[in-house]
Amino acid sequence: MKQSTYRVILRKEPEGTYTAMVPSIPGCVTWGETIEEAIEMAREAAEGCLEVYTEQGIEIPDDSDTFEYSINVADPLANQSAEYSQPN
Q1: Tens place of pLDDT for every residue, the chain, 88 residues?
Q2: Can you spell out the DSSP letters for 24-47?
Q3: Which one, of 33, 35, 31, 36, lies nearest residue 21 by Cα?
Q4: Which one of 59, 65, 85, 88 has the minimum C-beta count within 10 Å?
Q5: Cβ count within 10 A of residue 10
Q6: For residues 48 and 36, what is the distance between their CA atoms, to the nearest angstrom?
Q7: For 15, which DSSP code?
Q8: Nearest alpha carbon to residue 46 among 24, 68, 64
Q9: Model-level pTM?
Q10: Rounded to an integer, what distance in angstroms lies between the CA atom of residue 42 and that of residue 24?
Q11: Spatial contact of 16 and 25, defined as CB atoms under 8 Å apart
Q12: What are the residues whose beta carbons fall under 8 Å from the beta carbon of 1, sequence distance 6 or more?
């Protein structure tokens, strides 16, 4: 069976669970109690979504040629709150 590569984005939720999103597959969002569980749930959800899309004749490209990098950006709101809290 052919294997495809898909990116999974994980987000820690306030209650401590993890949301897992597969951006290249529309509607593919799930969650887990741990990172490992969320990743496994994402794999299962991706397989299910791809099966349905294949049945419907919808082709979803994989992420094998996608690159991702995170950057840090200054938070403008942090600077505003510091400005407002300084005495005149």
Answers
A1: 688 999 999 999 999 999 999 999 999 999 999 999 999 999 999 999 999 999 999 988 889 888 888 899 998 887 665 555 555 4
A2: TSTT-EEEESSHHHHHHHHHHHHH
A3: 31
A4: 88
A5: 14
A6: 19
A7: T
A8: 24
A9: 0.73
A10: 12
A11: no
A12: none
List, in order, residues 6 or more apart from 76 with CB less than 8 Å away. Answer: none
**Sheet of 29-32, strand order:** 9-12, 18-21, 29-32
Residues 6+ apart with CB under 8 A from 24: 6, 7, 60, 61, 62, 63, 66
Encoded tokens for 47: 């397989």
- Which residue is associated with the tokens 């495809």? 4
What are the tokens at 33? 């109690």
